[in-house]
Amino acid sequence: MNLSIDPRALQFLKFDGESGSDLGVYKTLLESTRAIPWKIDWATKQFAYIGPQIEDLLGWSQDSWNTVDDWASRMHADDREYVVNFCVSQSMAGVDHEADYRALTKDGDYVWIRDVVHVVRLDSGEVDCLIGFMFDITDRKRNEEQLLEMQKRLEALSFEDGLTGASNRRMFDSRLENEFESARRSGQPLTLMLIDIDHFKQFNDLYGHLKGDDCLVSVASALKQLGRRRRDVVARYGGEEFAILLPETDGEAARAMAERCRMMISGLKVPHETSDCADFVTASIGVGTVIPSPTMECRSFVQSVDKLLYAAKKNGRNRVSSAVL
């Protein structure tokens, strides 16, 4: 939002002691608005004027605003350095500008302020004074923060599997490419696990799709207990398949984690009467670890791990097939 200053409305600030009905009208109008007019003498850095509305907004009396130090000291510490430096540099350059910051109230709270500043120059070109308005933009900032939070949440949902709460395939593909390139640059190992719930079609046929959904949610919840580091990714890969991406995890650690994963799934003890592996739900896991060479492609890495998963299923299911690729 750009807020321009009408020079006519600030004539009474430019000419101290000026009288006249027009200036009186302008002053009355300005002091009856919610915007707070002010003037600072550039040479002394003192307030020549600030509107009485300042007390209603911040609680500080009109006569307590003496110098720019009063302005700066009543600013949130996190905003102060940037805002003061910005305003000083713009003013010295003779550039009109705006600044948003949190102003301290006398009660110890903070109000979001937008300062709109007009730089007045002498005929010589030197800065004479600064005049402007303070606007209370607290509600606007609150709305902006709520909108930003909503956008972040929507973005998160776009990368989340709606049923299980695990990352979705879109997120997995994106992170896989990034981590693969990162491993190539750093020379650190990257591990990928592909997990397939054994005989899941038969499970759905016997117990129904609602029970099938419950099973997927339970498995995802168990898997998320494994991938808890910041860069780990636990994703629903498709249907009854899950994928776990583990940066900086070597082959030995990967194999141990895959076995733990298999045991956690069987440990859920979800009944599966038509499985030929056990009386409860189990999973087959392919796990591969790689330090990508300059010529290796991410796609071939996934295909190699998929072959390991196929081997685990072919060799009797409910087992781990692993390799350092």
UniProtKB/TrEMBL annotation:
<dbReference type="InterPro" id="IPR043128">
    <property type="entry name" value="Rev_trsase/Diguanyl_cyclase"/>
</dbReference>
<dbReference type="InterPro" id="IPR035965">
    <property type="entry name" value="PAS-like_dom_sf"/>
</dbReference>
<feature type="domain" description="GGDEF">
    <location>
        <begin position="188"/>
        <end position="325"/>
    </location>
</feature>
<dbReference type="Pfam" id="PF00990">
    <property type="entry name" value="GGDEF"/>
</dbReference>
<dbReference type="InterPro" id="IPR013655">
    <property type="entry name" value="PAS_fold_3"/>
</dbReference>
<dbReference type="GO" id="GO:1902201">
    <property type="term" value="P:negative regulation of bacterial-type flagellum-dependent cell motility"/>
</dbReference>
<dbReference type="InterPro" id="IPR050469">
    <property type="entry name" value="Diguanylate_Cyclase"/>
</dbReference>
<dbReference type="Pfam" id="PF08447">
    <property type="entry name" value="PAS_3"/>
</dbReference>
<dbReference type="GO" id="GO:0052621">
    <property type="term" value="F:diguanylate cyclase activity"/>
</dbReference>
<dbReference type="InterPro" id="IPR029787">
    <property type="entry name" value="Nucleotide_cyclase"/>
</dbReference>
<feature type="domain" description="PAC">
    <location>
        <begin position="97"/>
        <end position="149"/>
    </location>
</feature>
<dbReference type="InterPro" id="IPR000700">
    <property type="entry name" value="PAS-assoc_C"/>
</dbReference>
<protein>
    <recommendedName>
        <fullName>diguanylate cyclase</fullName>
        <ecNumber>2.7.7.65</ecNumber>
    </recommendedName>
</protein>
<dbReference type="GO" id="GO:0043709">
    <property type="term" value="P:cell adhesion involved in single-species biofilm formation"/>
</dbReference>
<dbReference type="InterPro" id="IPR000014">
    <property type="entry name" value="PAS"/>
</dbReference>
<dbReference type="GO" id="GO:0005886">
    <property type="term" value="C:plasma membrane"/>
</dbReference>
<dbReference type="InterPro" id="IPR001610">
    <property type="entry name" value="PAC"/>
</dbReference>
<dbReference type="InterPro" id="IPR000160">
    <property type="entry name" value="GGDEF_dom"/>
</dbReference>
